Amino acid sequence: MNKAVFLDRDGVVNKPMIKEGKPYPPLSINELELMPGVVEGCKILRSAGYLLVIATNQPDVGRGTMSQDVVEEIHRHLQTEIGFDRIEVCYESGNGGLEYPMRKPAPGMLLHAASNMNIDLTGSWMIGDRWRDVDCGTNAGCKTIFIDLEYSEKLHSKPNFIVKNFSEAVAKILKS
């Protein structure tokens, strides 16, 4: 079986737009900026044998405040820059509970990717910058890393590691 690193998009792969202490996605390709160390870190993880899978909630599409075309354009750009093995997206605008199986914190996106790519979830990692990401990885049976960007929200469950940036997350994975 394969092992993977699942990555949240906004706040892990690319810089989020911060408004009143909360992260939001870029509203266009022109606002997209990769987080420091992501390109290099992804190369290192791939060299270590990990598949790279983005798992991202994009509820603004479901709410009608963002176009799905913009999200897909951003994903095409990320594929060109980094070359992820898969991108899982949930457009559901739900309130963050487990009632939507594909929306984090539910593990649906990770389970879907695992089923399609023969991924061993217990040998895999979820890297995120919000409580939903940590809970999603935990709910899927992955090890979790929380990148603490000091948002004004609390974690619901304890991650395996807390780091300050992507490079530190990569180092933790390689040492484990």
Q: Helices, strands, pairings?
A:
Elements: E1 3-7, E2 17-19, E3 22-24, H1 38-47, E4 50-57, H2 59-63, H3 68-81, E5 86-90, H4 108-117, E6 125-128, H5 131-140, E7 143-147, E8 161-163, H6 166-175
Parallel strand pairs: 1-4, 1-6, 4-5, 6-7, 7-8
Antiparallel strand pairs: 2-3
Short description:
By secondary structure, the protein is of the alpha/beta class. It has helices at residues 38-47, 59-63, 68-81, 108-117, 131-140, 166-175; strands at 3-7, 17-19, 22-24, 50-57, 86-90, 125-128, 143-147, 161-163. It has a 6-stranded parallel β-sheet with strand order 5-4-1-6-7-8, sandwiched between helices. A two-stranded antiparallel ribbon has the order 2-3.
Architecture overview:
It is a single chain. With 176 residues, the protein is of the alpha/beta class. The protein has six helices and eight strands. The strands form two sheets. It has a six-stranded parallel β-sheet, with helices on both faces. A two-stranded antiparallel ribbon has the order 2-3. Helix 1 packs parallel to helix 6.
Q: What is the CATH architecture annotation?
A: 3-Layer(aba) Sandwich
Helix content: 25-40%
User: Average pLDDT value?
Assistant: 95
Report the order of strands and helices: EEEHEHHEHEHEEH
Walk across the major sheet and give the strand order.
Answer: 5-4-1-6-7-8
Based on CA inertia axes, which overall geometry fits? globular
Number of helices: 6
Count the strands? Answer: 8
Kindly give the count of domains. Answer: 1
Distance between the termini: 18 Å
CATH fold descriptor? Rossmann fold
CATH superfamily: HAD superfamily/HAD-like
Over all CA atoms, what is the radius of gyration? 15 Å
The CATH class is Alpha Beta
